């Protein structure tokens, strides 16, 4: 362990929505620490507060109480504009419902964060070509988001979030609209960036995606029900494909 | 085991060892490889039931080998097997028994059981994912079996979540 500050530290984080007079407690006292290079999956039933939590960590939703520290700096007290700067510099965010810029091409959507982050046009283009290539979207670069399927838009959103080599990748169900093959592309890219040291916090229902993580946090009713590493399975027979059927029989 | 052997014999007569090899070639490493003893026991039963017959074939410098072939009754049984719908998986889950019964005994609480089980399923999923990565992409049969196991595991996880939501 180095003395490095964790990339994310949330302390007793609470979110109560106040709409139409009825308070809805969506997140109820969450403590979460994510170290540099860690990949944390967040799971839990619909309505358990996953999106709310990850939005708060990205400064996209205000907290009701509690603290958020990013990279050793207090963030929950920042103004909206200061959050915007912090996000641009440090955070890649993949929304559950994409949020691509409608009147820009796929290529420009992906290059924009890198350019805003100070990359040269050439660096931005090369990174974009790499990311779209890995996700099987190289030939869609000049399309506009409206011309893409849901699954394609979702992959573009992931490419955009990774364009600027963010300190922290926050992703909300990034494979929710993907079929098996596209999910495999996303898994491969996630594996690559994670091996390169990318810190990832990802909401997912998809067990294939969650099984890539170092750690799984399970939410239930706005609280953490479980937080721990995925163990190694000890398999008889040296792990050939031979016992797939048995494994699950 | 009975029907796969009948199916192979419907293609051509074979001796026990050839059947074992054929199963391995078709399913690759994705199906538990049967041991030769099991195959001979099954062939013996099929013979008793009249579904296959065998002839002794002489070999130079070796004991005779038994070559099996399918009978008309065997073909009929195979036809029936192929045409009838296959049973879907039934829920007969040992974990569910633990989940319902253990809290009554005070041995464990549900939350702890569910959490442990979820981590275990995810560990199995990681194992399957790594297995798929190591498997020859040309071996479609093996990859489809692995994908099937993954989809079942996903369903188990979803069910676990439902259990956690519904059981107090
Ligand atoms: N803007 C809002 N105003 C009021 N209540 C909200 C708002 N957003 C979310 N909620 C409520 O907060 C709770 C948590 O919602 P959240 O979107 O975080 O769940 P989730 O775990 O992401 O679910 P899903 O898996 O369906 O995406 C829910 O009860 C939801 O109805
Ligand atoms: Mg959500």
Number of helices of chain B: 7
CATH class of the domain at 37-55 and 78-231 in chain A: Alpha Beta
Radius of gyration of chain A: 19 Å
Give the structural class of chain B.
mainly alpha
CATH level-four homologous superfamily name of the largest domain in chain B = Winged helix-like DNA-binding domain superfamily/Winged helix DNA-binding domain
Architecture per CATH nomenclature, i.e. the level-2 architecture of the domain at 37-55 and 78-231 in chain A: 3-Layer(aba) Sandwich
Order of helices and strands of chain B: HHHEEHHHH
Interface with most residues: A-B, 34 and 39 residues
Oligomerization status of the protein chains: heterodimer
C-alpha termini separation of chain B: 43 Å
Instruction: Tell me about the largest β-sheet of chain A.
Output: 6 strands, mixed
What CATH first level of the largest domain in chain B would be assigned? Mainly Alpha
Shape of chain A: globular
Number of strands of chain B: 2
Instruction: Assign the CATH topology of the domain at 37-55 and 78-231 in chain A.
Output: Rossmann fold
Show unreliable segments of chain B.
none
Mean pLDDT of chain A: 89
Arrangement of strands in the largest sheet of chain A: 6-7-8-3-9-10
Average predicted local confidence, pLDDT of chain B: 87
Structural class of chain A: alpha/beta
Note the overall shape of chain B.
Answer: elongated
Helix/strand layout:
The complex is a heterodimer of chains A (249) and B (168).
Chain A: E1 8-19, E2 22-34, E3 39-43, H1 50-57, E4 65-70, E5 73-74, H2 80-90, E6 91-94, H3 106-116, H4 121-134, H5 150-162, E7 168-172, H6 180-195, E8 199-203, H7 207-210, E9 215-220, E10 223-229, H8 244-247
Parallel strand pairs in A: 3-8, 3-9, 6-7, 7-8
Antiparallel strand pairs in A: 1-2, 1-4, 4-5, 9-10
Helix pairs in contact in A: 3-4, 3-5
Chain B: H1 2-11, H2 16-27, H3 36-48, E1 52-59, E2 62-70, H4 72-83, H5 94-105, H6 110-134, H7 140-166
Antiparallel strand pairs in B: 1-2
Helix pairs in contact in B: 1-4, 2-3, 5-6, 6-7
């Amino acid at each position: 362990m180095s003395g490095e500050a964790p990339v994310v530290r949330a302390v007793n984080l609470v979110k109560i929505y106040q709409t139409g007079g009825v308070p809805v407690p969506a997140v109820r006292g969450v403590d979460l620490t994510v170290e540099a290079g860690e990949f944390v999956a967040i799971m839990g039933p619909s309505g358990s507060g996953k999106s709310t939590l990850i939005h708060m960590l990205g400064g996209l939703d205000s907290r009701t109480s509690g603290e958020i520290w990013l990279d050793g700096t207090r963030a929950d007290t920042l103004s909206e504009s200061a959050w915007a700067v912090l996000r641009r510099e440090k955070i890649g965010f993949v929304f559950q419902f994409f949020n691509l810029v409608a009147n820009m091409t796929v290529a420009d959507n992906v290059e924009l964060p890198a350019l805003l982050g100070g990359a040269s046009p050439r660096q931005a283009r090369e990174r974009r070509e790499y990311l779209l290539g890995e996700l099987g979207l190289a030939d869609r670069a000049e399309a506009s988001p409206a011309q893409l399927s849901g699954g394609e838009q979702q992959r573009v959103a992931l490419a955009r979030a990774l364009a600027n080599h963010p300190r922290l990748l926050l992703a909300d169900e990034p494979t929710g609209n993907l079929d098996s093959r596209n999910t495999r592309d996303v898994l491969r890219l996630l594996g690559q960036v994670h091996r390169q040291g990318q810190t990832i916090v990802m909401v997912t229902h998809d067990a294939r995606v969650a099984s890539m993580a170092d750690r799984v946090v399970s939410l239930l009713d706005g609280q953490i029900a479980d937080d721990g590493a995925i163990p190694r399975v000890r398999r008889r027979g040296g792990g050939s494909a031979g016992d797939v059927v048995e494994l699950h029989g | 085991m009975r029907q796969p052997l009948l199916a192979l014999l419907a293609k051509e007569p074979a001796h026990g060892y050839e059947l074992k090899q054929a199963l391995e070639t078709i399913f690759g490493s994705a199906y538990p490889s049967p041991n030769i003893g099991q195959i001979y026991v099954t062939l013996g039963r099929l013979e008793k039931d009249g579904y296959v017959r065998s002839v002794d074939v002489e070999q130079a410098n070796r004991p005779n080998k038994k070559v099996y072939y399918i009978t008309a009754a065997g073909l009929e049984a195979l036809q029936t097997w192929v045409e009838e719908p296959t049973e879907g998986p039934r829920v007969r889950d040992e974990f569910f028994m633990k989940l319902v019964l253990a809290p009554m005994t005070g041995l464990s609480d549900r939350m702890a059981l569910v959490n442990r089980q979820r981590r275990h399923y995810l560990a199995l999923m990681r194992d399957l994912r790594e297995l798929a990565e190591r498997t020859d992409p040309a071996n479609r049969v093996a990859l489809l079996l692995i994908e099937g196991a993954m989809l079942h595991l996903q369903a188990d996880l979803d069910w676990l979540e439902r259990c956690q939501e519904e059981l107090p």
